[in-house]
Amino acid sequence: MGRRITQRREELGLTREETAGRAGTDPGYLQYLEEQATALPSTNVLIRLADALETTVVALRGGDADLPPGVGRAAAHPELLELSDEECRARLSTHGVGRLAVDTPTGPVIVPLNYSVVDGVVCFRTAADSEPAASAGSRVAFEVDHIDEALSQGWSVLVRGLARLVTDPDTLRRLAELAYSGPWAGGERDTWVCVDPVGVTGRRIVVR
């Protein structure tokens, strides 16, 4: 639960003190909740925290972890906006989890994977015999998004480009050093593929 509280607080750009003030609790207690896996806050505290973080008690408890995103209803007055190139790249950030869309002999496949952005290029680690590795030399699409369940709004960024296999030892070493995390899927994933963007577009849903 602590990690989910921290993640949501950081998504909103709130300090621990600001969040505690919103929830009517002590910053030290909030730190305890965030850092101690055995912490068991009362339902009343959870309700106030969920309200302060613009989410739900179920989400903070992880009860929706096995559900697809976007199960809530649309907001009353949504507006769809185009993101600028600068806004798209800001949302791609330096790393995260996105989805690679590739063509295979049996049809299109979409694969979620960890990625890094290095010098404006999307790079990821995969297994040598995987579908993402086989995409090298082909045109691919890479998508990243974020859904705000509480407000029924969010954004998505689409990168289109040519996938290429990285073989230069110095580049491989640099990519490994800059990687924020190993692949969540684990296993032997030492093949690096980069997507050189030919187009970056994005959209955002805001609620007025």
From TrEMBL:
Keywords: DNA-binding. Coiled coil: none annotated. The keyword DNA-binding applies. InterPro entries: Cro/C1-type_HTH (IPR001387), Lambda_DNA-bd_dom_sf (IPR010982), Pyridox_Oxase-rel (IPR024747), Split_barrel_FMN-bd (IPR012349). One of its GO terms (molecular function) is DNA binding. Gene3D superfamilies: Electron Transport, Fmn-binding Protein, Chain A, lambda repressor-like DNA-binding domains. CDD domains: HTH_XRE (cd00093). Residues 5-60 form the HTH cro/C1-type domain. Pfam families: HTH_31, Pyridox_ox_2. This is DNA-binding protein. It comes from Streptomyces avermitilis (strain ATCC 31267 / DSM 46492 / JCM 5070 / NBRC 14893 / NCIMB 12804 / NRRL 8165 / MA-4680).
